Fold this sequence. Notes:
- With 312 residues, this protein is mainly alpha-helical.
- It has a domain at 7-147 and 191-237: Rhomboid-like (Rhomboid-like fold), CATH 1.20.1540.10.
- The chain has helices at 15-33, 36-46, 64-67, 69-72, 80-101, 103-124, 136-149, 172-190, 203-220, and strands spanning 2-6, 8-9, 154-161, 164-171, 228-229.
- Strand 3 and strand 4 (164-171) form a beta hairpin.
Amino acid sequence: MLPIRTSVTGYGPPAMVIALILVNVLIFVYQMLLDRGDFLRLILHYGLVPAVYTDPGYRPESLFGYLLPPLTSAFLHGNWLHVGINMWTLWLFGRPLEQRLGPARFLVFYLACAFAAAAAHVMINADSPVPMIGASGAVAGVLGGFTLLWPRARLLLLIPILFIPLTFTWPAMTYTIIWFLIDFAIGLGEIGSGIGQGGGVARWAHIGGLLAGLALVRPLSYHQRPARLIGGADREYMREIGHQRPPMARKLGSVPRTRARLPRLTMRLPAAGSAVPRPWRPQTPPEKPKQEEEAPKRRRGSVPPSGPHRSS
Length: 312
């Protein structure tokens, strides 16, 4: 199952994710330019060999021989499919995670997951002389951090069946649990027998990176940054996109108590087939017809306005 889209994304380009992808691709291109002998020496020197930490015969000459392989092995890959799947997964789940953590903390998170994946692989395959390479453990930590922050995010998954692409959507939590159970079941068969039964895949490195991502993402995302949910934000997903409830508000999306609610304006739409009404205008009361002014009433004994009456 290959995830090809997620409902959560970030604002702006993820600088650290792009930098990590470029470094991995450039190192892989350099690997492809080497001949077979130099390529094997590069893998043995910079890959993670578990026997270095347990067998005195593989003891390195300096302290850097112990500290560098967990880091450098995360930037080496075996083929184009290996580097392609890892970098695509890093791009898909790393964009919103970097937006939440920030570039510097995301780099710390990524490298810490790589070290945890290397430690888990060494613990299970302590005497193995086979080097481990690949960013799968660090990418598994990115997946774990993404799932913990956005467990209800929708993932579009692709399964090619006889050259027919089959797509469906799952929540991020469901996908991560199934992915973990598959790796855990296969990893149990690898204990005590090297990595041969897993088809050359370091399953316990995946598990160690995933658990490290689940444990580290909350402390590193203390100062939350916004992320964007495709399709808009409603009350159900307000928590997922990183927005906090406004102060003095009764519930998400409500108006604070200190502010008055504005009246809601509504308008009825015309029925089907009826004429469209004209724009509403304020109506003024009709003016009353002007009546002739009545002559003022005279008091008894008063002089009419035209003067005294004279008899001939």
